[in-house]
Design a protein that fits this description.
The protein has 118 residues and is an all-alpha fold. It is built from five helices and no strands. The chain has two domains: 30 residues, no CATH class; 76 residues, AhpD-like (Up-down Bundle), CATH 1.20.1290.10. It is 83% helix and 0% strand.
C-alpha cells in the first residue's frame, strides 16, 4: 500500500481516538450521539453487518473519508466479506455516480489497510 494513503488512514484513526475523550468532556451532544449510534447498529431485523454495509454506502456517497474508514472496519469486524464490501461499493456508485466511484477507491485502500493490520 502507498505510504501516503496509509498515513491518511492512520491519521483518521488517530484523530478519532485522540479526540474521543475531548468530545466526551466538552460536547453536550456527543454522549447522545454515541447512544444513537449504539442503538442504530444493534442487530434487529437487519444484522449489524448489513447496517454497517448500508452506512458504508452512505459514507461513500456523502464523501466522508473518516466515516468510510470506520464503517469498512466495523463491517469487517461484523463479518463482511470482501465481496460484500465490493457489492456495497457497487450500490454507492449507482447512487452517487462518478464522485462515489472516486471515494470508493478510498474504501478499497481502507479495506487493504485493515487486512494488513491483522
Amino acid at each position: 500500500m502507498d505510504k501516503f494513503i496509509k498515513d491518511i488512514i492512520n491519521q483518521s484513526i488517530n484523530d478519532r481516538k485522540q479526540h474521543h475523550s475531548r468530545f466526551l468532556e466538552n460536547c453536550s451532544t456527543y454522549n447522545s450521539f454515541l447512544e444513537l449510534e449504539k442503538k442504530a447498529f444493534e442487530a434487529g431485523c437487519l444484522s449489524r453487518k448489513h447496517k454497517e454495509l448500508m452506512a458504508l454506502s452512505i459514507s461513500i456517497v456523502t464523501k466522508c473519508e473518516p466515516c468510510i474508514e470506520w464503517h469498512v472496519q466495523q463491517a469487517c469486524l461484523a463479518g463482511a466479506s470482501d465481496k460484500e464490501i465490493y457489492e456495497t461499493i457497487d450500490v454507492a456508485i449507482e447512487m452517487g455516480g462518478g464522485p462515489a466511484a472516486a471515494y470508493s477507491r478510498f474504501a478499497l485502500n481502507v479495506l487493504d489497510f485493515h487486512k494488513e493490520e491483522k
